């Protein structure tokens, strides 16, 4: 019977398996670690038609599974060199794939086998790869131990990233100790290229706790240089202090690190410990004590002039301040900045800050020392709006009458952060008033009024005025309080109070501006309307000859304000010192390429006294006509101006584009009308871009009838106001209409009323 079984098995073995059947059986045997099954299958014939590449892919997959299972016997059965060599050349991608699988399983025998088959432990082509780095990166210690025994292996393969920096960065003590027990120790002080950090420096930069501290200890025990310059600028000791790692600082100090290394920037070690002490205050204090006991100067300023106690105050380190005070530091160096800094640090939760303040005051901090700007601790306490602290400083002799270099007093500082809280502001100011503080200032440019919140209540303002707040001539500009009002703090009740105490609504400041001119300049609608309603003089001119109307003309799109002034009698005929009227201000600043948004203002102005000024050039040399000539949206206004017989003698010709009016379908008719209205022939020709158009225009001019020539001459003599002047000549109606160009321009263009509301499609086509 056994003989029959062997015969059957032999027959099965001699039978060729299909690729799918072979694949299924082999994968199952490999996953089950069935060495005999794998051996039999590898001896089994596979169908001759099975693709070679699919067989190689199958064997590669099975070899990977065997390496993962750490089964060297199966690896030996499945692996063939053809899996990694293509035409005799090693395939680096497959090399890395097999090696990474063996390393991931921490399978030293597998790595040894692959290496014996010709696979590399390192390559630098394409994406560089190294087995040593891979082991350290993924903490595969068994393979790492094996690799370190391979004869001739390079312990420092990557000059840009020393091998020891990897476990140091990770806090991987196990790998680090293995490397330190090998020849890799010789490279213990090598630095990486990216940031010039040694293994010791990497422990500090990536420090997370005890695991990195243990690595530091291992490195120092192995001989790492604890005073070597890292980051091209500092030492491990200074770097640890900067990173707020007092545990590391204390360890390095105990290891004998240089306590007075070269200065890091502007700070020495003691300064850095005082500046960065948030993580472990008690350990930081122990470090500071260690330094002071070793002779460090507790008063030595940094390169920026900051003393250790000042830095400790800024960082809010109570424990370090205690140690510095115990060492006898001078809390008034430099210039009492420590006390001022403690006041600046005050916040909503002021427990720590108040403790520090008390410590400094108990240690003799001078409440009257000021900084380079003249700012005292009392001023800062007023700025913090802390009543308790203000009263404490005053009780200790703080100078309540002092001003900073800008002339600001404690009163100014108490209002700096009022944010509308007039009740608290009054409480603070009453403290200073009781001490005899005046609301006046030594510098007229920093008056108290400018520090009052935009929405003061009247009672608060009365309190200020009753205690000396100047409202009639404020500061070097000699304004009154009305000049300073804005739309946020204007109320009629406030105005009634100010007028009741005699504030002059027409007072001119240093530059001649009245409150109305200031309101126009800042577009304060409510204030401007109120001043006009109570009868202010709206035609007062400042030292440049400007009225409120002229100042308003410098703005944009403020029809409501213009209506208020003009309807109340603002004089459009007044001229400034340069001879400019309001209308010239307006045309210089308001006629633009967005004319469709401005025509309402312009129509209103021309109907209210500005029509006589349309031919006067503004400061840029432009008249209203030359401004609207270049805007297609202004065609209706252009034709209206021609009906008013405005001057056409200065058409723009230098560096100008062709006027849109000469680019329409009716351009021939348009330039004929321009010529008949008095425009110079040569200037019109500058706007004709076709040679044929020039010829036609010359023919028109040369053949102009005597009647039309006379009209052109007479219109040139009559000038603006031609409609009234022609009417007074008592000419026949037909002749009057001819003089007014009614035979050339539709009657709808002769009036401003509804000028831009044309529904007549033919008219629209004509002027467009």
TrEMBL record:
It comes from the Eukaryota. ANK repeats lie at residues 304-336, 373-405, 511-543, 544-577. Keywords: ANK repeat, Repeat. Signal peptide: none annotated. Residues 705-739 form the SOCS box domain. CDD domains: SOCS. This is SOCS box domain-containing protein. It comes from Patella caerulea (Rayed Mediterranean limpet).
């Amino acid at each position: 019977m056994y003989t029959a079984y062997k015969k059957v098995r032999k027959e099965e073995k001699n039978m060729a398996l299909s690729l799918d059947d072979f694949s299924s059986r082999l994968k199952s045997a490999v996953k089950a670690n069935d060495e005999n099954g794998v051996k039999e299958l590898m001896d089994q014939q596979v169908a001759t038609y099975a693709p070679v590449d699919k067989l190689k892919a199958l064997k590669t997959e099975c070899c990977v599974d065997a390496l993962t299972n750490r089964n060297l016997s199966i690896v030996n059965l499945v692996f063939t060199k053809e899996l990694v060599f293509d035409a005799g050349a090693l395939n680096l991608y497959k090399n890395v794939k097999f090696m990474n699988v063996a390393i991931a399983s921490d399978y030293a025998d597998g790595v040894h086998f692959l290496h014996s088959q010709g696979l590399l432990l390192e390559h630098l082509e394409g994406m560089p790869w190294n087995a040593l780095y891979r082991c350290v990166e993924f903490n595969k210690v068994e393979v790492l131990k094996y690799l370190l025994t391979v004869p001739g292996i390079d312990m420092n393969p990557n000059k840009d990233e020393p091998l020891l920096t990897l476990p140091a960065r990770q806090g991987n003590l196990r790998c680090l100790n293995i490397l330190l027990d090998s020849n890799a120790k010789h490279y213990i002080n090598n630095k990486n290229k990216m940031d010039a950090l040694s293994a010791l420096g990497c422990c500090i930069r990536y420090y997370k706790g005890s695991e990195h501290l243990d690595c530091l200890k291992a490195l120092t025990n192995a001989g790492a240089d604890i005073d070597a310059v890292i980051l091209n600028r500092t030492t491990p000791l200074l770097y640890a202090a900067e990173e707020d790692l007092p545990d590391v600082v204390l360890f390095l100090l105990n290891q004998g690190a240089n306590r007075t290394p070269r200065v890091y920037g502007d700070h020495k070690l003691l300064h850095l410990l005082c500046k960065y002490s948030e993580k472990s205050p008690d350990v930081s204090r122990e470090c500071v004590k260690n330094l002071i006991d070793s002779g460090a100067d507790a008063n030595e300023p940094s390169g920026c002039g900051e003393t250790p106690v000042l830095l400790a105050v800024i960082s809010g380190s109570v424990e370090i301040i205690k140690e510095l005070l115990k060492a006898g530091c001078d809390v008034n160096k430099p210039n009492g900045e420590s006390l001022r800094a403690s006041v600046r640090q005050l916040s909503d939760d002021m427990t720590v800050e108040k403790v520090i303040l008390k410590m400094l005051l108990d240690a003799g901090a001078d409440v009257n020392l000021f900084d380079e700007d003249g700012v005292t601790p009392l001023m800062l306490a007023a700025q913090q709006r802390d009543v308790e602290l203000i009263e404490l400083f005053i009780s200790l002799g703080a100078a309540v009458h002092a001003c900073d270099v800008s002339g600001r007093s404690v009163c100014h500082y108490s209002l700096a952060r009022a944010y509308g809280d007039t009740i608290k502001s009054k409480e603070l100011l009453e403290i200073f008033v009781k001490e005899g503080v005046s609301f006046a200032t030594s510098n007229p440019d920093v008056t108290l009024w400018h520090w009052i919140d935009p929405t003061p209540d009247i009672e608060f303002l009365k309190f200020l005025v009753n205690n000396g707040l100047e409202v009639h001539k404020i500061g070097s500009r000699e304004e009154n309080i009305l000049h300073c009002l804005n739309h946020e703090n204007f109320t009629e009740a406030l105005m009634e109070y100010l007028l009741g105490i005699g504030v002059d609504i027409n007072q001119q400041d240093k530059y001649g501006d009245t409150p109305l001119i200031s309101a126009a300049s800042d577009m304060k609608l409510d204030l401007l309307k109120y001043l006009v309603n109570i009868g202010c003089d709206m035609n007062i001119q400042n030292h440049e000859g400007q009225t409120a109307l002229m100042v308003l003309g410098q703005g944009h799109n403020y029809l409501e304000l213009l209506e208020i002034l003009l309807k109340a009698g603002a004089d459009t005929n007044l001229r400034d010192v340069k001879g400019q009227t309001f209308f010239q201000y307006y045309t210089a600043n308001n006629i633009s390429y967005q004319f469709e948004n401005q025509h309402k203002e312009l129509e209103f102005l021309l109907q209210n006294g500005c029509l006589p000024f349309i031919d006067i050039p503004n400061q840029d040399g432009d008249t209203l006509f030359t401004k609207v000539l270049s805007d297609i949206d202004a065609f209706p206004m252009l034709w209206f101006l021609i009906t008013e017989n405005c001057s056409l003698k200065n058409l723009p010709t230098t560096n100008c584009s062709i006027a849109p009016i000469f680019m329409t379908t009716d351009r021939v008719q348009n330039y004929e009308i321009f010529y008949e209205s008095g425009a110079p022939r040569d200037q019109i020709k500058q706007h004709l871009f076709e040679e044929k158009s020039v010829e036609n225009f010359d023919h028109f001019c040369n053949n102009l009838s005597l009647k039309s020539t006379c009209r052109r001459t007479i219109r040139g003599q009559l000038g603006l106001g031609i409609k009234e002047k022609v009417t007074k000549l008592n000419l026949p109606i037909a002749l009057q209409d001819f003089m007014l160009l009614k035979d050339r321009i539709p009657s709808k263009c002769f009036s401003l009323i509804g000028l831009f509301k044309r529904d007549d499609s033919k008219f629209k086509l004509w002027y467009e």
